[in-house]
Each structure stands twice: as structure tokens, then as C-alpha cells.
Amino acid sequence: MQRTTKRSHLRIQRDVIYALLLRELSSRFGKSRGGFLWVLVEPIAHVLVPVALFGFIRQRVMPGVEYPVFIVYGFMPFLLFKAICLQIVDGTNTAQGLLSYRQVLLMDVFVAKALAHCVIQAVVFLVVLTGLAMFGYDVLPPHPLELGSVLLLAAVLAFGLGLLFAAIASLIPDARAVIHVMFMPLYFASGILFPVTRFSDEWVRLLAFNPVLHLVELSRVMGLDGYQPTKYLSISYPVALALTTTVIGLMLYRQRYLARVTS
Amino acid sequence: MIRLDNVTKSYLTLTGRKFVFRDLSFDIPEGVNVGLIGRNGAGKTTLMRLLSAVDLPDSGKIVTKGRLSWPVGLSGGMQKNLTGRDNVKFVCRVQGLRRSRMQEKIRYVQEFAEIGEWFDLPVATYSSGMRARLAFGTSMAFDFDHYLIDEVMAVGDASFRAKSRKVFNERLQRSKVILVSHNMNLIREMCNMVIHLDHGQAMLYDNVAKGITAYRKAGGVP
User: Fold this and answer.
1) Confidence check: pLDDT of A256 > 80
2) Does residue A1 lie within any of the structural domains?
């Protein structure tokens, strides 16, 4: 039996993240009953329910923008943000078995989970958009590259905030449940069902503190033809927040605030 | 050689910080099989976790040139929602093996574990004996300088025990073992040296019988 060859640090990390990524994807897509279908249920429900409730009342949100497409482009960054953020918050718990191998670091698990959910959400939205296109909706985004950057921004912000939340959750384990519940009001505060321009000005100014609102609006600007965003929309706010949370999160990780507390 | 240099490890609990080791230093010399003994809560598992780098010390360091295994235990390292095969694949990929070399390891584990079609079912559905077969087989598929083994030899039925002992004894021609066990016969049979953990201190005994006597005294066993 030959020994495994000596690998550089970078090579080891690449091997580990690859192994974790395959593991994450195979446990999500394959094996379990229904597999990928279950991954699709949540986003499809999130498009169908509001369309069924409000779609018949108002076919068009604003000139040239159709309601189902409007929902999809708003929901896309939100779902990506939620998935990555919660995966990292729960990652400290679910990773324990994986950390038995000395090559596997907690950060590798976080990175692999974030990458896996980028892949999963990308597939999910391609499926949903294709579905809408088959019903005759115009789904093609006018600014695809910019749209990709917005989604990348959503992923980075989710990663940074996820690290912060994970640090909080490892100090106060009960906080984990609060973080999970928080996504419900966040959904409504992100203007996914209606354009926030419907709300009064004071409200929007308050809601603009929510970085996810900016992601949602940016995504629509890039994905919908002729979409009019709120005047409080800012690119620098979510970018600055994504960078600061990621840096602080990584610092906390280095100081081992995210390490397990119990033995 | 494995050198522990001023290793301190504590865990934060609801009633405050509990120190398992404070400034623990000792050397495990080259070429010996070590038995790690001590009462429950003496820190045997913590020391194994530190040696295998699953957990990091608060301060101090552990230095070795050798390759140390992961802690080979009942379920350590097995992902319960994945199949046995996928678990072996995961370990191979983490170790940097792909394709034909990975297939070779998978075949080895499959033959060693002898769990039949269960190999392609999730580990969560295994009996504890089957889990031990898979865990031990996976660790035997790789070559390490030191195997860290936590009470795994005692499980499984008679035929598996005989087989794993045979393979393991062959392996001990070139590798060494650090063994946690409450089975003193096993320690006597396999180890040339004993580390007795008690109240955060490590006492090293070159004479296995003396070490076991010290452990018995400390534990109040006649």
C-alpha cells in the first residue's frame, strides 16, 4: 500500500473543499427520496402563492413588468442570502463529524456550504425561469452580468453575516433559534411581494436599513426591463456592509469564537 | 516522536471554564505502542482529540513529524446520512486520492468490512457492529505512523475481532498505536508503555504493569 503523497497547504485545502462540495451536493440532489424535487418546492411555492393571491388583481406591477417575473427576481437574492446565512449559522453544529479529519477545517466547511448553495440556487432559478418562459413570460434579464454581480454580493453578505451570527450562536446557543425566526419578518421587510415605492416615504427610509432590501431592488433593476427602484436604493451600503461583516467574521473565526464550546 | 509542549486545554461550561490540562508537557518516544488509561473524565478523549487535531489547544503546541490517524472510534468521522461507500469516498478525497486509487481503497474497505449490501445504505441504518467494521476498515485502508484508537477493538463479533486483530498486528510491524482502553488485558498485550492521566497530569510508565497498578490505586480498584 503506497503512502499518500505530500501535498501543499493549498492543495490540501482544495482537495478538502472539493470533497465537502461533492458531499454537500450529493446529499442534497441524490440519494434521498424526491431529492432535487424538494429543493424546488420552496421557491416554486414562493412564486405561485403570491401570484395566486395578488396576480389576478393586478397583472402588471408597473408598465412592462409582469408580476411573476417581478417576484422571481426579487426572491432570487433573498433565497440565496437566506440559504447561505443559515447554512453557516448551523454549520458549526452540523460540521462536527467532518472535523474528525485533521485536514478539514471549519472554514473549509463554510466555504463548501456557501459554494454548494450558490450552485443549488443557480440551478433552482434556471429551472423556475425556464418554467416561466414556457408560459410565455419575458424572463431574459437586460443586464445579466450585473445581475450576477448582485447575486455574488448577496452571497458575500450572507457569508459575512453568517460568520457573525455563528459567533453569536456559539456564545449564546439559544440565539440560533432567534436567527432562524428572524428571516420571516426579513422577508416582508425586503419588499418581495410589492415594490417598496408603494409604501410611504418614512417607512421606506426606515426599511432601507435592511441590506437585503437593496439586494432585492438591485436584482430587479438588473433583471427587469424598465423597473423603477426606490430612490433610497444604494449600492455602496450593501457592498460596505458585506465587506465589513466578512472581515469582522473572519477575525472572530481566527480568534476561535466560532469553535465548539462544549466538549 | 510526538512532543507535547505546555499544552493547556479548557472548555467553557455553564458553571465556568473547566481545565482539562494545564501546561502539560511530555514526549512520546519513537517506536512504542502507547496505552492511554485513566478514569472517566480524566481527559483521555480530549488528549486523543488534540493529538488528531480535531480540537486545538488553548495554548502550547503538539509537534510531530509522523502521520497521525483520525480518532478511530465507534462513529467518529462517519456521516450518518451518507452511505458507507460515500463515506469512504469522502475520506479518500480529503486525503487527496482520486479515481483508480480511490477505487482501490473502496474495494479494500468493502472487502474488509464484509457488510454486504449495507455498504450502499446510509450509515444511520447500521448496527453498532457494522459501524465499527466500516470505521475500522476505513482506517486500515490508509497508512499512518500512529493509529489513534478509542475502544474500537472491543466491538464486533468474534470473527471480525479475530480478523481485525490479525490485520492490525501486521500493520503494527511498521506503524504504532495510541490506544485508549479500559480493557487492561488489551493494554498489556499491545502496549510497551502506558500514560496514566489523572487530575490533568500525565504519568508515563515504561513498565506497563506499574502503570496499570498506579491507575488501579488512583481509581480505588483493588
Assistant:
1) no
2) no
- Suggest the residue from B8, B93, B98, B143 to mutate for an interface test with chain A (most A CBs closer than 10 A): B93
The set of residues, in sequence order, having a beta carbon less than 8 Å from that of A184 and lying 6+ positions away, is none
CB B134 within 8 A of CB B78: yes
Instruction: Tell me the residue range of the domain where A37 lies.
Output: 9-262
Question: Which three three-digit cell numbers place residue A148?
Answer: 450576477
CB contact under 8 A, A23 and B82: yes
**Contact (Cβ atoms closer than 8 angstroms) between residue A159 and residue A246:** yes
Write b or e for each residue in B153-182: b if 16 or more Cβ atoms lie within 10 A of its Cβ, otherwise e: bebbeeebeebbeeebeebeeebbbbbbbe
Closest Cα in chain B, distance from residue A102 (Å): 5
Strand partners, B8: B59
Q: With contact defined as beta carbons under 8 Å apart, do A120 and A28 qualify?
A: yes
Q: Measured between CB atoms, does B69 come within 8 Å of chain A?
A: no
Q: What is the torsional sign of CA B148, B151, B155, B160?
A: positive
Q: Is the pTM of this model over 0.90?
A: no
Place of cell 452540523: A94
C-alpha cell, A165: 451570527
**% of chain B beyond a pLDDT of 70:** 94
Scanning the structure block, which residue is given the C-alpha cell 434521498?
A32
For β-strands B146-150 and B68-72, DSSP reports them as parallel
Which set of grid coordinates corresponds to residue A239?
457592498
Which among B91, B73, B74 is positioned nearest to B179, based on CA atoms?
B73
Please state, rounded to an integer, the average pLDDT across all residues of chain A.
86
The whole-angstrom separation of Cα A19 and Cα B98 is: 10
Domain-located, residue A33: yes
Q: Does A100 touch chain B (CB under 8 A)?
A: yes
Q: How many domains are there within chain A? A: 1
Q: Which residue(s) pair with B147 in the sheet?
A: B177
- For B117, other C-beta atoms within 10 Å of its C-beta total 6
> Rounded distance, CA B109 to CA B119, Å?
9
What would the pLDDT profile of B11-59 be if each residue is shown by its tens digit?
877 788 889 999 999 999 888 999 999 888 888 888 988 898 888 888 8
**Number of residues in chain A:** 263
Q: Quick one: which of A82, A92, A29, A62 has its CA closest to A220?
A: A62
* Residues across chain B: 222
Name the residue among B109, B150, B148, B144 with its Cα closest to residue B130: B109
DSSP A107-145: HHHHHHHHHHHHHHHHHHHHHHHHHHHHTT-----S-HH
A171 interfacial to chain B (CB closer than 8 Å): no
The answer to whether A89 and A113 are in contact (CB under 8 A) is no
Residue A240 placed within a domain: yes
Q: Is residue A82 part of a domain?
A: yes
